[in-house]
Design brief:
12 strands, two-stranded antiparallel sheet, single chain, 7 helices, disordered N terminus
Length: 275
């Protein structure tokens, strides 16, 4: 914008007048080059001042916007339209929400909420309690079984007439104190020369006199001499004798009568060693 001033019959601009006045103060007539140089200096000075003014106006507004982003505030309008600040920073009101969704990192590295961690901890405690109860129940059951087994005293019955009873149940005392050796092949012999040859005097290899319902011949490498044996379907015996043909899972049962050895023939039955 130009501010015209009347000087004689000519209208001069303000910067032209400033140049003329400066020259007048020096009592010299300004040269045209000097007038142009001083005019440029004046224009740059005005531009710098204008830019400074703009910066001063923009900076407060920018600072206000930054502050508004950092700390949100609420504004309400009064009845006459005047905006008043009614709340300051609302961080205190947000804190309960933040606390409600606080999360933590578990030992496996997965992010879980506080509620999830509490639930997992409760489930872990319940699992541990259940495992402890099951272990206690198992221990109690084992102790009860051992108590019952101890109460079952094995009392063998010897000296009876040997006969095969396939439906005979295995006594509980045998099951409690016996070890199943497996199914054996059973044959029969007596004390005659045909069955025993030169050892037909009735004396077993253990030194005991052979007796029906007690004496059996075994392989001592499988069942040691003197071992109590229960044969399913036949009853209780003692390993007292050996035989040249009795090897491995084979037992020869002693009888008093040779004819009955043929009658019973060959049998197969489960054998228990009773300790």
């Amino acid at each position: 914008m130009y501010y015209g001033l009347q000087v004689g019959n000519n209208t001069k601009t303000r910067w032209q007048q400033s140049v003329i006045q400066h020259a007048a103060s020096r009592c010299v007539k300004p040269e045209i080059g000097e007038v142009i140089t001083m005019s440029k200096h004046f224009i740059w000075t005005r531009l710098v001042a204008l830019l400074a003014s703009c910066c001063l106006c923009i900076m407060p507004a920018a600072a206000y916007n930054v502050q508004a982003m950092i700390a949100p505030v609420a504004v309400r309008t009064t009845g006459v339209g005047t905006a008043n600040l009614v709340e300051e920073n609302m961080v205190d009101e947000v804190n309960p929400t933040i606390n409600a969704v606080t999360s933590a990192v578990s030992s496996e590295g997965t992010v879980r909420s506080v509620a999830q961690i509490d639930t997992a901890a409760q489930a872990d405690e319940a699992a541990k309690a259940l495992a402890a109860e099951q272990a206690a129940a198992a221990a109690a059951a084992k102790a009860e079984a051992e108590k019952k087994a101890a109460a079952l005293v094995y009392t063998p019955l010897y000296g009876r007439t040997v006969k095969y009873v396939p439906s005979a149940a295995i006594p509980a005392s045998v099951q409690a104190h016996g070890t199943l050796m497996g199914k054996y092949k059973l044959t029969f012999y007596c004390g005659c020369e045909q069955c025993c040859g030169k050892w037909s005097d009735g004396i077993t290899s253990s030194g005991a006199t052979a007796a029906e319902g007690r004496t059996i011949a075994v392989d001592p490498s499988v069942i040691p001499i003197g071992t109590k044996v229960y044969i399913e379907g036949f009853g209780d015996f003692i390993a007292e004798d050996v035989g040249g043909a009795i090897k491995g899972n084979k037992i020869d049962i002693y009888l008093n009568d040779h004819s009955r050895c043929y009658d019973l023939g060959v049998k197969y039955a489960n054998v228990f060693v009773v300790r």
